[in-house]
Design a protein that fits this description.
Strand content: 25-35%
CATH class of the largest domain: Alpha Beta
Number of domains: 2
Number of helices: 5
Largest sheet: 8 strands, mixed
């Protein structure tokens, strides 16, 4: 009779973590980050809960990671622990164990439920090399369109989908000061609010849609930064805080 795998004890606590990807570490892939994070919890001697089976692994749930190459101030994961700990102490230990650029910003106790279900929308800032006047005209045309089709290679092959329907807000950010304030001499930065759905529309899909529809060229490597992600407030048309319940 085949030997049965050892059954692990259930977790006694779950913690939700917000972290950032900054600087050169924005090029860290999700797989690379997950390996780095697992090493960090091991070095910090955090008593993780483990899965059952022949190959137990620490219970870490990642939620809606940003694409490789994107900076982010709002990445989230949840860990399950084998004993109760002070979230503040876990925060401090992880800050010490992770490299600068993969920065743990907050740790709170999970109130239960699904973290992924709370991540309903994302707020992005996109730096481009497009002239302001050209970008304004392209954004106006994009928002006026009922549908903007793009293609992306997915797990099941090339797929065409509408990127316009996921866009809640798209605007050209005016320069804060300087000679180009209020004028057309600078380059455009885009402010984008995306509703999450299936298929998931990414900022680069919106940039592709702008180019397909209007010919807008945003440069070879537009700077993508996720500023926030969380529950979507339909009335205010804003992204909320997915960790708010854990602070209560």
């Amino acid at each position: 009779m085949r030997e049965q795998p050892e059954q692990q004890a259930p977790p006694v606590q779950r913690l939700r973590i917000r972290y950032a990807k900054r600087g050169r570490l924005r090029f860290t892939s999700h797989r690379d980050f997950s390996r780095a994070f697992e090493r960090a919890v091991f070095r910090a001697r955090i008593p993780m809960a483990y899965s059952s089976g022949f190959n137990p692994h620490p219970r870490i749930s990642y939620a809606n990671a940003a694409p490789t190459g994107s900076a982010s101030e709002a990445e989230y994961l949840e860990i399950a622990l084998a004993q109760r700990l002070d979230p503040t102490a876990v925060h401090a230990e992880l800050v010490e164990a992770l490299p600068v650029g993969l920065d743990v910003l907050e740790v709170v106790e999970s109130p239960g439920g699904s973290l992924a279900d709370l991540l309903q929308a994302s707020h992005w800032r996109i730096g481009t090399t497009a002239p302001l006047a050209v970008a304004r005209a392209a954004v106006e045309a994009f928002l006026a369109a009922d549908e903007v089709l793009v293609e992306r290679m997915m797990k099941k092959g090339l797929r065409e989908f509408d990127c316009r329907s996921a866009v809640v807000r798209l605007a050209v950010v005016e320069p804060a000061d300087g000679d180009d304030a209020g004028g057309d001499g600078g380059t455009a930065e885009l402010d984008l609010l995306l509703r999450h759905g299936v298929p998931s529309v990414r900022p680069d899909d919106v940039l592709t849609g702008l180019r397909n529809l209007t010919g807008l060229e945003v440069g070879e490597a537009p700077r993508l930064t996720r500023l926030a992600q969380g529950p979507f407030d339909e009335t205010a048309q804003e992204v909320g805080d997915p960790l708010a319940a854990g602070r209560a």
